[in-house]
Amino acid sequence: MHEMSIAMAVVDQVEQATAPGAGRVESVHLEVGQLAGVVADSLRFCFDLVCAGTVLEGAELVTDTVPARARCTDCGTGWQVGSPPDLCCPACDGSRTELLSGRELRIRSVRWADEPVLADQEG
Length: 123
Ligand SMILES: [Zn+2]
Prior knowledge:
The chain is an alpha+beta fold. It has helices at residues 3-17, 40-51, and strands at residues 25-33, 60-66, 69-72, 78-80, 97-101, 105-112.
C-alpha cells in the first residue's frame, strides 16, 4: 500500500504551493501512469484521510490515467503496451523497446477556491 505515502507527498506539495491566504484547495489533478502501480480508489481514500485538518480538507482528487506507450528501438514502431504491459514490438517482434510513458505520477494542476473580493471598507 504505497498509496498512503503518495497521498502524503501530494498533500505536502500542494500545501507548499498554497500561498498564504489563497483559500482552501478545491481540487487536485494528478497524472497517473497506467504502469505506476497506483489504485486510484485507494489513493482517493488515503488522500481524504491525509487532507483532514489541512488547507486541502474537502478537496477533490481527480486522477487522469496516462496510457502506457512504448517504442521499438529497432524499427521505431510505437504502440500502447496495455496492462499488464506487452513489451514486444508488434511490427518486428523485437524486444529492444523503450517505455515512453506510463510511469507518470505528478500533479498536473491545483485549483483553489476563488478568493472573496475584498470590499474597500476603509474610507
Ligand atoms: Zn520493431
